[in-house]
Amino acid sequence: MNENQIPITSSELANLWMAYQEKTMIMRILTHFIEHATGEEKELLVSHFQQSEKDMAKIANILQEEGAVTPLGFTEQDVYKEVPKLFDFYYDMMYLHMMTKLESSLYALFTNMSYRKDINELFIAFTAHSQEMNNKTTQFLLQKGILARPPFVTMPKEVNFVKDKQYMNGFHLFNDTRSLNTVEVSLIHHTIETNLVGMQLMIGFAQTATTEEVKEYLVKGMDLSKKIEINLGEFLRQSYIEPPATHAGKTTTSKTPPFSEKLMLYNTSLLTSFGLGSNALGGAFSLRNDLPAKMTLLANDIYSFARKGGEILIKNGWMEEPPQIEDRKKLTK
Q1: Between the CA of residue 168 and those of 13, 177, 178, 280, what are the distances in Å?
Q2: How confident is the model at residue 244 (pLDDT cuts 50, 70, 90)?
Q3: pTM of the shown model
Q4: What DSSP assignment string belongs to 158-183?
């Protein structure tokens, strides 16, 4: 049997389904950004939009060949054109930088969960495209003086091994806690950088939400983002490192929604899931026990927030159901 004639597996179906949802969502967000962009910004936004459109068509074609329904995802009805721009001063590039970082992680995971050759190669290509765009937005933001580089550090001159168990102890009443190592700093910096962009997104979404329940939920998202930045930023300050910050990418004063509430909640859900993953990664790779303890507490808050968002999506009939495994109990009745 030809490799591509082998039916796709449940994991491959799930990965294609999730990728389709994400790609249709980001196309709708980019539609609003493109409408108000000029110059190099617009070129990068259009480039990623067009690539996402091609990728979406490839996914739809595979699903069609497999006899599976194509997800609805997000359509042009989820973005409202000719409205004032919601974000200002390079936020579109900051958002694209954040989302291509998320895409790279997501599609790399999907690559490792795919077994059929064509599906595997598809996600390898998706990962490469996202990484390429992430690099382009990184260089753009650095040139504009918007993206804060992680802190520099004195280069190590010799190899050392940890000899004292106190190295892992972040809770000291009378002694100084050791300074952070570079692994810990890099993970904290990454989390704060992503969270700052997410915070502005929550502000813009909350500002333009039209139903009280959704507005209240998104305001909680604003507060949670602030809490994460303050708590993790304190670890950096204890080592005399200033947390990353930027003067750019603020929300405008517009209260006119450019996106449907369904789209806003889905984007929030996606970033929340990404945040949970980042927290888990940060906790797992930290050898100072106060960091995992703090990240566990924050993870509980993030999980509760994510669960509430899911409840609102379901309540309003906005959550598209993923493909289901056969219910054998029901079928054998």
Answers
A1: 42, 10, 9, 18
A2: confident
A3: 0.91
A4: S------GGGG----SSSPPPPPPHH
